[in-house]
Each structure stands twice: as C-alpha cells, then as structure tokens.
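Quick sanity check, histidine kinase:
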Amino acid sequence: MWKYFVQATNNMRIRNKLIFSYLFVVMIPVLIVGGIITAYFRQDALDNAIEQTANDVDKIKSQLSTMLSVPISISNKLYLDDNLKDLVNTNYTTILQMVQAYSKYNDFEELPRLYNEISNVRFYHYNRTMINNTQFINVTAKIEGEEWFQTAMNNPRIGWFFMEGSDIGTEKKLSLVRRIKFKDYRTPGVLVITLNQSMLNSILSKEMFNTLIADDSGYIVAAKNPQNVGKTLKQLDLNIDMHQGQEQTISRRVNGVSSNIIVDKLTPQTSLNGLSVVSVFSTQGIVQDAKKVGWIGMALVIGVLILALTLIFVVSKLTTNRLLHLSRQLNKVARGNFDTISFLDGNDEIGQLSRQFNYMVRSINDLLNQVYESNEKNTKLEVAQKEIKLKMMASQINPHFLFNALESIRMKAHLNGEKEIANIVRLLGKLMRKNLEVGSVKKTLKEEMDIVRAYLEIQKFRYEDRLNYELIVEPETERVLLPPLIIQPLVENAIIHGLEGKEVDGMLRVRCSMKEDMLHVEVIDNGAGMSEERRQLVLATLDAEEEEGNRIGLRNIHQRIKLTYGDDFGLHITSIPGQGTKMEFMIPTGGEMHV
C-alpha cells in the first residue's frame, strides 16, 4: 500500500502535488482549528480580561501600599518626637509664650512640602492653655463623639478613616488616625495625617476599567472617575462584602449590565483596618468584542486560504517552467557546449541552482584555459632554464682552479709580509665562494651580512680613506631568513653610483632592525644622490621587463622580493641631490627564523 502511494505521488506533476498537499495539510486543518478557536475564543477573552484586571489590581495595591507607607513612617517619627511632646504638654501662662512655642515648631508645616503623598498634618490634644490653629486643635465634646476619635483612643494601632475636619472644609479625605501617648504624661493625643486626594486618584487614572478604592465602611476614597469619590458602593450598585480578607472575583449584574468585579483587600502593617481595591468591567462588552474578532478572524482565514490556493497555481506554473528551462541548458552542456548560460533570475533554490550551473560552466572553461596557459608557461620555463644553464656553463670557470690560484697568491703575499694583501685575497676568495654557493635556499641575515662585510673590506682596500662604512645589526635580526644576495648588490650599487666620485669622507651605513614582525633593511650613503626625475626613472625600471642596462641588480632585488613576499613589498628609494641616497625594503618574518 505504501509502495503504491509513493509511486503514485512520484508520478504526479509538481503542481498537483502542491495543490493536494495544500488541501490536506493546510486548508482542512486550518478550518478545523479555526472553528475550535472561535468556539472557545469567548471564554479565553473573558479569562484574559479577568487575569489582566487582577494584575492591574495587584499593581494598584503595590502603589497604594507604597503611598500609605509615607504617612505611617511620618507617624512613627512623630510618635517619638520629644519636641512635639514638650509642645503639647506645656502649660502656657501667656499668649506670647504659646505663640513663640508655635513658631519654633514648624514640622507640621514642612511635612506636606517634603512629601507629596500627604496634604495636611494636625494634632488633637487636651491642653487647654493652647489656642487652636490649623495644626493643633483642642478636643471638644463633638470631636470625642466622632467614630474615628473613639477608635483611636481605644486602640493603639493605626486607623484609616474617610473623614472631614474644620481645617479642610466639608470635603472628606482619607486620613491616618493614631493615638499618641507621651511618656511621663498621662494625657494622650490623636495624630491625623490627611492624604493627598489628587495623588490617590492618579493611581487609578490610567486603568482600563472602572476602578476605585473603598474603606471598610463602603465609602469610596479614590476612583478613576473623581466624581465617585465620597459615594458609597451601594450607591453604585456594588453590594460587596468589604470584610472579605482575600482576593475575590464576583460575577453579577451592575446597573442592569452583566459584569465581573475583582476585589482585593489591603491592610497596611500595624493598621487596625484597611482599604479595598475594586475593579468592574462589563462581561457583555468583552464577549461581544471577542465574538466579533472571532468572526472577522475566520473570514480573514478563509480569504487567505483562497488567496493561497490561487498562489499555489501561479507558483507551481512558474516553478515548472523554470525547471524545464534549466533542464534544456543541462542537456546542452552534456553535449559539450560550454558556452551555455542560464538566464534564470531569483534568489530561491532554482535561482541558486541556475547561478551554480553558470558558475560550474565558467569553472570548466577557466580550468581548460588554466591547463592551456600552464602548458604554455611550463614550455617557456623549460626553454628559459635551458638558456640560463647554457649561459652559466659558457661563463663559468673551474672553481677549484680559481680558489687554488687565489690561495697561492694569498700564501705568497703572506710569506712576503704583505698581510693586508693576503687578507684582501682571503676575503675575495670567501666572497667568490659564497657567490658560487648561492642557490634558491634562504640564508640567515648573519650569513648575508658576512658577505657584505667581506665585500666592504675589499672595497675599503681599494678606496682607502675615501670609504668608511658602518654595519648596525640588531641581535634579534641575525636569525631571520631571507633570499640570498639581496643586500650586497645594494651596497655595491651605493658605492659605484653614490660614492665613486666622492674624494673624502665617503660614508656607507647598513642598518638592520625589527619593526613589529617586519625586518627593515636600510642602505644609506652620503654620495652624489640623484634628482627627483632620475629617481622616478629608476623606480619605473624596477617593474619593467628584464633588459640589458646598469640597473639589472636593483631590478633583480626588487622583483625577487615581490615574487617571494607579494606585490605589497619591494625596494624603496629616496634621494637628495648632493646629500646622498637611501635604499630600503621591509619583509615579513612570519616567524621564519633559523633555529
């Protein structure tokens, strides 16, 4: 069965494969899943709204707790304030004494300016020698009858009350109420810290749903809609048990609309009572939007599926045509036509295959050309090697005869007491032996400088005091490997073209140093120098094809450096007429040193 299915699939055209795959793998599953998602979308939207509202309530609780911690902290500080204790427990004999005491104590005036969370601080006391002002108020019978005062006097913990006072008019605000018993005094007082109503409302201003904060009596102390502040929950048709201590989610009708209510209680530390955060949102609105989104989503899915089916037809047709074109090009190459070029564009797999096909054809042509050029080069190289060998054989004399003759001359001069001549002959023999031993193997800089030193000693014998030289070789450069006979020709060129015509004080300096991983060689003379025009002419001949002339040595060095180390390297020449010439080059060591 499986074998039959595979065979039938392979026999189908690509377009039909794509269409059937799309129908059974994409369209039908998407329609089924879309139906399931639409069926459950309502509940999911409702659950998300409840979860979001619960998170918002938790955030509000956190912000409210932070705000309430400010008046609590202030009350703790005032509870232990000795200045406040002395102020309200002193018997004042004159009004001037009392006014002076008021003027010295300004904490109640400073605290609202220091903390935005509070708007007013006042203290209720039993000291009849004090006159009432906005901060210090004598307890009257009316005040003693207030619920907040009785609660504070009967309980040491902090109470939160939605209350009014003569200092703030008839408008009620949330206030902290706390009894303060002064040490060493029997008469207590009641501290009242009124919270900033605008800041309370601002906590709720950016909420998505109708959100409010209520006390245990059901009074609304803050709301997203400030007009609701001062009303009760019953007035807003919110019949909620405010004494429930944990978070609760309630489903009921509010003002005739099916709604969900999230309630969470906040009781600050050391507080007798607390506040509740209430958030209300309409269930009908959430579900209606969910249904609408679900139907719109299903319509969009069906439209996209139809559009995709149309695109399948178009794409399959384009793909088939491109594959047939590439197949015809492959057949041409198979018949030996390597000038074939595929003109298929695009960055998909077929376009990449077309570019790889063109690259393959070009690579085959390049390989054929390289083989042809390589054969030509090998032929030319063999011819050149034969010519060089013939020239060397024609110009070469027997080295054993030459060395034996030089040794005989040296011994004769030594026996006759001509030690200087004997030394020069010895150096000449050494120099010629080194030249004859030169091959393609690299030599150390120390060996190269031995040849330079021998050459300079011979030239010193010739020029006497007209020639002076200095060899400056840093120790770390002596083991660097470099092509043989690459410095001595520069020295020879400097003597012949730079110092030949100098009658006195001729100076030649060779300096070898390391610059990072590069060997830097400089050959400097104080000879005749050359003009800028002549220097440019010399530089131009360095890269020219080999020809007869008196700059063959410099060209040889320059081209050997470039062949060995690359086109970025080579010989550099700077010169000032009448002051001298500097020839230099830099080559990378790359860790290539004699061990």
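Posting the structure with no commentary besides this: The chain has 16 helices and 17 strands.
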